[in-house]
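Handoff note, outgoing to incoming analyst
You'll be picking up this chain. Sequence as last confirmed:
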Amino acid sequence: MHNIYADDPASRYLGIIRTNALPFGDDVEEGGIFLDACRINHACDNNAQKSWNDNIKRHTVHALRDIEKGEEITIYYLRVVNSRKARQEALRRKFAFTCSCRLCSLPPDQSQESDRRLDEILKLDSLIARDGLMGILSSPLRKLRYVDQQIRLYNEQGSNDIGLPRAFWDAAQIAIANGDLARARIFAERAVLGWIVLEGDDSSRVLQYRVLMQDPSRHELYGMSMKWKTAVDDIPPGLDPEDLDDWLWKKEKPKQPGQLANFRNRATFPSFDDLSYENDVSLEFYESSDGFTHRPRRHWLFLAEIVDFDILVRLQISIKDIDGRTIPLFFYTDKRGSELAPSLIQKGYTVAILYAQRHTFMYSEPGIRHEEPTNIKVLLQLLSRLQT
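Most recent structure output, in case you need it:
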């Protein structure tokens, strides 16, 4: 076997082990030499997946797709599928070779687009994990939107990535924590199907999650909140694939021009928790033709009722959104809020902000930083009356 540490003859066998050993699982330091599996070469667009099966105490390799006769079997040596530059640097540092697989040999424009997707997937990973369980309970719809966005990117990149079933399991846990057993079962089924391809139907992970797939209420997160409560069989019958997908991801279709507005439509009139963060470009709200500049892909209007206000350096209004959450609205317009007539700033009136975003303030709780005067209107009635 190859030894990239051959310049140290005193540690020849240790060098071979360090070069070729495969781990006994995802999160362990122990590994071993497997005479066949350790000879399989790397590709960033690998056609097979390595994994340790603790049930049979063997290292297994499963095909991710049909492999043609004479085609080389390849696995992925690294843990995370990063951008081309990051992959190349890691492979040179850890294994002393430069990868020339199909993914690494794409034309510059295609490679740049692939890197954009991979960077976005990693960015979404951190957004999904942000705030842990409290984030899942306080902002479940936004977390679900992040996972939906991540899965669409995985499918664009290539649907056999090991991260895809994990993303479905993230969605299952969001549903479970909020009492939604129907969606949890479907998400769990999709996660298990993905892990069967990657690891085989006898792997420890598949056996463990197959039990939860059948009865998601056995998960420790069940009952933390019952905000989305459904029974495991509460799946609407007769839906076509597109409508089933909309139901599964809790998507509400925006109204078409000419249709009367439904103020309960969360796609058009989101709550504060549904909004994207100011510095996090969400594909649910924005689109890009070049991967760098973004524009709104549709219209959305944030509605909230005025509960209090103050004028110091700038106008600050405390507002309550459609979920009853009170947040601060700070005016960073040129006139610092004085462009609004005092008669409009009254408790009980409703502010309507076009293209609103969440903002993290240094000395205040998260809220909205308002900068564009033309994107706000004040409606002279209670928010509750608009929703009736």
